C-alpha cells in the first residue's frame, strides 16, 4: 500500500472529519428508511379499517339525493300532464300568471304617468295664477304683501296649540302642579251631600294619623 503514496494511519483531524461524514451519511440513510417505511405503512390495513364510521352529513346527503332522484323521476313521468292541467306553456310559464304580472306592471306605469301629469297641471296652475296676479297690478299701485312678509317672524321653534296661548299654558301647568301636590300631601276634601263611602274603598292597613311620642 505504501507504494502508491496512501497513508496507512489517519491523523486526528482527518479521523474526526471522517467520523462526522459517516454520521451524516447514517443520519440521511436513517431518514430515507423512515420515510420509505411510512409510505409502505400507509397502504397496509389497520385494525380500525373495517369499522364502519357513521357520518350524519353523508347520510343526510344520501337521503337528499334519493329524494331528488325520486322527484326528478316523477316529474319526467307526469310532468307533461301536470303542465297541461295547470295551463303552462312549453317554456313553463302560466298564462294566468303572465297576465297578472302584466296587469300589475301596467297599473304601476299608469299610476306614475297620472302622478306626473297631475304635478305638471299643478305647476301650470300656479304659474298662471302668478302671471294673472302680476298682470292685475298696475304700474302705479303696489303689490300686496303676504302673511309671511307682513309678520316677518323668521325662524321660530315649533309650538303646540296650548303652548301658543299663554293663559292655557299656565292653566295646564297649574293642573300638573295640583296633581303632584295631591300625590305628596293629603288634600282637604269637602263633603257634597251625604257620605257615600270612599271611592277607592277603605284600606284597613292604612293609617294617616300622627302618633305622639
Verbal overview:
- This protein is mainly α and 213 residues long.
- Helices cover 62% and strands 0% of the residues.
- The chain is extended and about 135 Å long.
- The N and C termini lie far apart (133 Å).
Structural class: mainly alpha
**Separation of termini?**
133 Å
How would you characterize the largest beta sheet? Answer: none
Radius of gyration: 52 Å
- Helical percentage: 55-70%
| Count of strand segments | 0
Give keywords.
213 residues, mainly alpha, 62% helix, 0% strand
Topology, pairings included?
Elements (H helix, E strand, L loop, with lengths): L11 H31 L13 H31 L8 H42 L10 H5 L9 H4 L1 H19 L29
Question: In brief, what are we looking at here?
Answer:
The protein is mostly helical.
Amino acid at each position: 500500500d505504501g507504494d502508491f503514496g496512501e497513508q496507512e494511519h489517519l491523523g486526528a483531524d482527518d479521523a474526526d472529519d471522517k467520523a462526522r461524514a459517516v454520521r451524516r451519511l447514517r443520519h440521511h440513510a436513517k431518514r430515507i428508511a423512515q420515510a420509505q417505511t411510512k409510505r409502505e405503512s400507509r397502504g397496509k390495513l389497520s385494525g380500525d379499517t373495517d369499522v364502519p364510521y357513521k357520518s350524519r352529513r353523508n347520510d343526510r346527503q344520501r337521503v337528499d339525493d334519493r329524494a331528488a332522484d325520486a322527484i326528478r323521476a316523477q316529474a319526467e313521468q307526469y310532468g307533461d300532464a301536470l303542465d297541461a292541467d295547470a295551463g303552462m306553456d312549453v317554456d313553463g310559464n302560466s298564462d294566468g300568471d303572465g297576465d297578472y304580472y302584466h296587469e300589475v306592471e301596467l297599473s304601476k306605469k299608469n299610476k306614475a304617468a297620472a302622478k306626473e301629469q297631475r304635478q305638471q297641471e299643478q305647476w301650470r296652475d300656479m304659474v298662471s295664477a302668478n302671471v294673472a296676479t302680476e298682470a292685475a297690478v298696475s304700474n302705479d299701485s303696489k303689490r300686496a304683501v303676504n302673511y309671511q312678509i307682513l309678520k316677518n317672524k323668521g325662524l321660530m321653534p315649533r309650538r303646540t296649540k296650548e303652548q301658543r296661548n299663554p293663559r292655557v299654558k299656565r292653566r295646564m301647568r297649574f293642573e300638573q302642579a295640583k296633581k303632584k301636590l295631591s300625590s305628596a300631601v293629603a288634600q282637604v276634601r269637602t263633603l257634597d251631600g251625604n257620605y257615600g263611602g270612599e271611592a277607592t274603598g277603605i284600606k284597613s292597613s292604612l293609617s294617616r294619623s300622627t302618633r305622639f311620642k
